[in-house]
């Protein structure tokens, strides 16, 4: 098929790559000057800066599969075993670590939970009971998505301290809303798949390359090798149904519009609502996408004149610092001859920070880092800057599952992709990749149905033709 993929994020990259591997004629259109979508990098004063810090888990099998297909899996290593350093301000408890052992799940995390000094013994016991209860949450029941995670935790004996010091470490970063406000369905997906699934499911992977190289550059290289066409700085104004399939109307300055047999619409939900042709889905469904909303992520970048943190990343408790990452090597800072250490603080569910001035954020987070990292108290901050993703993800609150559409639409050949579609996962890189694969499956199902329909019509005229068409159908499948 001659297929146009609109949107060059991970969903669009996955769909384009998969279709090109199946010998389709693929054109990928991206409005920005680079591929990668929200997972991109830029240069600032000689440093390579990612727009946001992204990590993944061993259970993110489809995302890891994409990296392998792009030839960059070796640049995104996983921990041998799940291991997270948890920091607290001085005077509020010692540094501790959450680590798994080699036992099968759920025993793999039991020793570290029992020794988690941020909670009392009684709180640890209740956390263990709640974790076991989480295994029984039915992800397939629509009612699950109508429950707030905080309400469920409260009913299972989790006090304020337990929710903030443990449950929020993982739910806020993965769902991008305050932990108590998250959908139980999404929170349970995170816990069941990552923490209570296979013993190695939660092992953390941190890219060793800037995201622009890991995703955008690698994808452009692979798609070119497969013969696909990638057009950057190309805005799509409309998708129209035509006798041959679809006409993709391009923005001002484009040479000509594109005719296609199939279209994968792999853009954020607000853009998808503007571009999807009338009749492709009921108006009520498209209008409902606005209910997904948008949640911000803010990244605070701090460069010190010396090394102040000895681990690659750490989580914060009793601190405005949620997660902090050592970005020194990946930014190229030392390679350029600069000394010191570059740390990036990742703030999810960042509504309270996204509109604050750089000076205000500096006033709060420099002392906060000094409270967590004693060496930072004597160090000099040589640079401080902030990146903001105002619409980083949809808001993973109760009721969002019914708003997330499947890949297929009423128009054969037009499918949706994006981490906001119905993947069952929070708005993550794994969800984006899964959505791209879902879109390809939906296209193939439509094509198979079309061939079956053609065979049925021919059958009424000539049985010998049916046998020929049926053989062709087998090859196409």
Shape: globular
Helix content: 25-40%
CATH topology of the largest domain: FAD/NAD(P)-binding domain
- Mean pLDDT figure: 91
Computed structural class = alpha/beta
Given the structure, what is the number of helices? 13
The CATH superfamily title of the largest domain: FAD/NAD(P)-binding domain
Strand content: 15-25%
Q: In CATH terms, what is the architecture of the largest domain?
A: 3-Layer(bba) Sandwich
> What's the number of extended β-strand segments?
19
* Main sheet attributes: strand count, strand direction, barrel closure: 7 strands, mixed
Count of distinct structural domains:
3
> Strands of the biggest beta sheet: in what spatial order?
7-6-15-16-17-14-18
Low-confidence stretches: 453-477
Q: Supply Rg.
A: 24 Å
How far is it from the N-terminal to the C-terminal residue, by CA? 13 Å
CATH class of the largest domain, please? Alpha Beta
Report on this structure:
The chain contains 13 helices and 19 strands. It has 477 residues and is an alpha/beta fold. The chain folds into three domains: 2-39 and 59-72 and 209-292 and 398-446, 3-Layer(bba) Sandwich (FAD/NAD(P)-binding domain); 101-202, Guanine Nucleotide Dissociation Inhibitor, domain 1, CATH 1.10.405; 295-393, Polyamine Oxidase, Chain A, domain 2 (Alpha-Beta Complex), CATH 3.90.660. It has a seven-stranded mixed β-sheet with strand order 7-6-15-16-17-14-18. A five-stranded parallel β-sheet has the order 9-2-1-13-19. Strands 10-11-12 form a three-stranded antiparallel β-sheet, with no helix packed on it. It is globular, with a radius of gyration of 24 Å. The protein starts with a strand and ends with a helix. 45% of the residues are buried.
């Amino acid at each position: 098929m001659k297929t146009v993929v609109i949107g060059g994020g991970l969903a669009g990259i996955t769909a384009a790559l998969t279709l090109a591997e199946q010998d389709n004629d693929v054109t990928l259109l991206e409005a920005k000057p680079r591929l990668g979508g929200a997972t991109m990098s830029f240069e600032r004063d000689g440093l390579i800066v990612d727009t946001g810090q992204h990590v993944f888990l061993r259970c993110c099998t489809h995302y890891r599969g994409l990296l392998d297909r792009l030839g960059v899996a070796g640049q995104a290593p996983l921990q041998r075993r799940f291991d997270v350093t948890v920091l607290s301000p001085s005077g509020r408890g010692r540094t501790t670590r959450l680590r798994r052992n080699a036992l099968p799940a759920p025993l793999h995390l039991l020793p570290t939970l029992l020794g988690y000094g941020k909670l009392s013994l009684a709180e640890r016991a209740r956390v263990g009971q709640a974790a076991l209860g989480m295994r029984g949450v039915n992800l397939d029941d629509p009612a699950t998505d109508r429950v707030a995670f905080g309400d469920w935790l409260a009913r299972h004996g989790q006090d304020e301290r337990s929710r903030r010091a443990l449950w929020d470490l993982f739910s806020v970063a993965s769902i991008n809303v305050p932990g108590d406000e998250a959908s139980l369905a999404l929170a349970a997906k995170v816990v069941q798949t990552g923490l209570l699934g296979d013993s190695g499911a939660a092992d953390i992977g941190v890219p060793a390359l800037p995201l622009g190289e890991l995703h955008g550059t690698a994808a452009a290289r692979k798609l070119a090798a497969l013969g696909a066409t990638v057009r950057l700085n190309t805005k799509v104004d409309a998708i129209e149904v035509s006798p041959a399939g679809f006409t993709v109307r391009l923005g001002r300055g484009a040479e000509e519009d594109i005719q296609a047999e199939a279209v994968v619409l792999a853009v954020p939900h607000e853009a998808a609502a503007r571009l999807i042709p009338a009749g492709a889905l009921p108006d009520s469904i498209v209008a409902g996408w606005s209910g997904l909303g948008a949640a911000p992520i803010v990244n605070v970048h701090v460069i010190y004149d010396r090394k102040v943190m000895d681990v690659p990343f750490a989580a914060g408790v009793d601190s405005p610092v949620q997660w902090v990452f050592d970005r020194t090597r990946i930014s190229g800072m030392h390679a350029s001859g600069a000394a010191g250490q570059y740390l990036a603080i990742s703030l999810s569910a960042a509504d309270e920070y996204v509109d604050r001035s750089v000076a205000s954020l500096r006033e709060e987070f420099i002392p906060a880092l000094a409270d967590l990292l004693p060496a930072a108290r004597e160090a000099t901050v040589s640079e401080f800057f902030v990146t903001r993703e105002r619409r980083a993800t949809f808001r993973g609150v109760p009721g969002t599952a019914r708003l997330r559409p499947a890949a297929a639409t009423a128009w054969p050949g037009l499918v949706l992709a994006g981490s906001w579609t119905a993947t069952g996962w929070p708005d993550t890189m794994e969800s984006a990749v899964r959505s791209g694969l879902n879109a390809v499956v939906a296209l193939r199902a439509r094509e198979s149905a079309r061939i079956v329909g053609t065979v049925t019509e021919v059958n009424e005229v000539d049985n010998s033709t049916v046998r020929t068409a049926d053989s062709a159908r087998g090859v196409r499948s």
